Amino acid sequence: MREKSEISLEEFDLWLKTKFTDVFWFKGHKFEKTEGEDIILVDGGLFTKEEAKKLFKMLNSRNPFIRFNATILIWERNGFLTKIIITLAIVAIVLIYIKVRR
């Protein structure tokens, strides 16, 4: 099992180093190179190569909390987390308003 994750990391490093710009899918997340050398798009969020490599290691971890933290980081970068927080705030305001009106 350990060799499989190391091979995946080696494949990801090879993908980062080459000029090949095809999309790299990993556990449901889309890693995509941009025109610039140091920028990687992960599900629409901008990351540097080093950040993308760390994110890949987090997603490849066996610890579910580390994988969840990686997903939260991706959501934060692509704006999805902000939308969730705004939606929850609006729902909370509506519930408070309904509670106060009674």
Secondary structure blueprint with pairings:
Layout: H1 2-17, E1 24-26, E2 29-33, E3 39-42, E4 45-48, H2 49-59, H3 64-78, H4 80-101
Antiparallel strand pairs: 1-2, 2-3, 3-4
General description of the model:
- The protein has 102 residues and is an alpha+beta fold.
- It has one domain (2-101).
- The chain has 4 helices and 4 strands, in the order H-E-E-E-E-H-H-H.
- The chain has a 4-stranded antiparallel sheet.
- The longest helix has 22 residues, at 80-101.
- It is elongated.
- The termini are far apart.
- The model has no long low-confidence stretch (mean pLDDT 85).
Computed Rg: 18 Å
Mean pLDDT: 85
Low-confidence stretches: none
Strand content: 15-25%
- Helical percent range? 55-70%
End-to-end Cα distance: 58 Å
Largest sheet: 4 strands, antiparallel
Q: Strands across the major sheet, in which order?
A: 1-2-3-4
The global form is elongated
Tally of strands: 4
Number of helical segments? 4
Instruction: Give the tally of structural domains.
Output: 1
What series of H and E elements makes up the topology?
Answer: HEEEEHHH
Q: How would you classify the helix and strand content by structural class?
A: alpha+beta
Question: Could you provide a short overview of the structure?
Answer:
With 102 residues, this protein is α+β, with helices and mostly antiparallel strands. 63% of the residues lie in helices and 16% in strands. The chain has one domain (2-101).
